[in-house]
Amino acid sequence: MAVNENLRTPIVSVMGHVDHGKTTLLDMIRGSAVAEGEAGAITQHIGATEVPIENIVTKCGDPSLKDRFIVPGLLFIDTPGHHAFTSLRSRGGALADLAIVIVDINEGFMPQTIESLHILKRFKTPFVVVANKIDRIHGWNPNKNSSFLASYNKQSERVKTDLDNKFYDIVGELYNLGFNSERFDRVGDFQRNIGVIPISAVTGEGISDVLMILLGLAQKFLEGSLHYTAKSPGIGTVLEVKEEKGLGTTIDTILYDGTIKKGDIIVVGSLGDPIQTKIRALLKPRPLSEIKAEEKFQQVAEVTAAVGVKISAPNLEGALAGAPVRVVSPETIDAITAEVKSEIADVQIDTDSVG
Ligand code: GDP
Questions:
Q1: Which atom of ligand 1 is nearest to the CA of 24?
Q2: Is the CB of 132 under 6 A from ligand 1?
Q3: Within 10 A of 88 (CB to CB), how many other CB atoms are there?
Q4: Do residues 228 and 216 touch, judged by C-beta distance below 8 A?
Q5: Spatial CA neighbour of 13 closest among 339, 322, 347
Q6: How far apart are CA 234 and CA 213, in angstroms?
Q7: Nearest Cα residue to atom 14 of ligand 1
């Protein structure tokens, strides 16, 4: 088996309590992938980072593993923490194909950890739990970028016991919330058990394990939902509504199906009637090497899923983070506008009832 051309990159969201390490983990995934270099460069998207399969298997020390996987890589989204997204966070759960729930192993579960788990359960999103900050365990001897097991086996018995105790507190908390879980290397059936991976987002220990387990989950659970048609009209979700100098209001969008082009008419969810507008520009981040202060973005004519892109268009002021973005034609505009409107209404009822 090898990468299947008809499958798009799975979208992965990192969720968890504030300060438990979401940003550091994403930076580490980005940074280490950059450092790995040659085998397929990572791509920085708007609001997301794409790590190609070559990088992941190289990082795991066995490039031949590539042939075992059918997805082209993983697209990590930078889940924004601001209020608009928080109130529609359940949409974030639905947007992602896979998720990482991060928990500080020394602090255990906090309200946002629990909330994340509820959302994932509701949307039946496959996920892993990472128990972060193992380097803070007293006496831990770091082994930079090592796999978890290789590093664990080098620790003293006292440190191992300390980690095991904290680790099983997390397994216990997951059990209380209705999830059976085990350390990732002991999980026989990911359908029945959640894999928990001890990591350090600072030393990189366990990161390769996280990437491999995510690929395994994509392989096992997502093949049916990752098929896409490059030529079909684009479908995406608003990640963030942003004011940009010289561009006005823009929407950072994750496109998960089809293609979106400059000049396309789109329908975007808002609190009132959906917005109908025409795309003025599609923008991607400029490569790091070329960044000039006043030109953060470069225009592209079209993009195909899965991708993160900034859309500039008139009348986007009322756009809602978490809402759908759909490319329409004169034939489909009325029906799709009605669909978007009812989707937003559903989400609002949902979030109201969740509280
Ligand atoms: P976020 O709010 O979930 O995005 O958390 P951050 O990534 O901003 O991390 C919060 C703090 O914890 C920062 O000071 C990080 O440097 C620190 N931190 C995150 N991961 C680790 C880790 O694995 N080990 C240690 N020692 N510190 C960490």
A1: 7
A2: yes
A3: 22
A4: no
A5: 322
A6: 29
A7: 19
